Amino acid sequence: MIASFDWIVLGFAAVALGVPVVVAWTTGWRRGLALAVVIDAVALCWMFLPLTWSGWLIVYILLALFSLCAWMGARLSPTLTLMFGIAWLSMPLWTSVGGNWIDVHPLLTANAISGFGPWLEQPLPYELTALGTEVPYALSDRWVTTALMHGVLGLILGACGFAERRVSRSRRPEPTPHR
To answer: pLDDT, tens digit, for every residue of 38-85?
Structure first.
């Protein structure tokens, strides 16, 4: 049986996998609609978890801002965005370094907000990670810090994508008129 918080982890993973694919395969308004469907489908499933409304809304905001980062990054390189998104989400499992990243990690912040108990003390993550055993950590419920970090990162990636598109358009040769 999957624990309740694992559904939140699966939701973030679905967005990390789905957003680059949607960006790579769709264009225009269909892209925005497909992204909204991916995000809202995950959030709709979360409504059946034993979360308070405010907890659900905060986790939804974190998911939306994580999706913004993935969307803007995927406009530059969908493959790299997919790799970095999965690496960022799985960081609690493979890292042995504590530090400030714990305060802005979306899954650890969502874990603190959700009230399901420490996810890293569940049987599977407990065996896979060094956090809490060799690397001290504490769950941070400062979700505003996490939201701001992902929002600013999304804006920076969006600006890079916009600049890259302008440069690539300016390098295109002028079309020659047909006679």
So the answer is: 888 888 888 888 888 888 898 898 888 888 888 887 777 777 888 888
Cα–Cα nearest to 9, from 58, 46, 50, 48: 46
Q: How many Å apart are CA 15 and CA 41, to the nearest integer?
A: 10
Burial track 75-114 (b if 16+ CB lie within 10 A, e otherwise): bbebeebbebbeebbbbbeebeeeeeebbbbbbbbbbbbb
- Written as six digits, the tokens of 109 are 């912040």
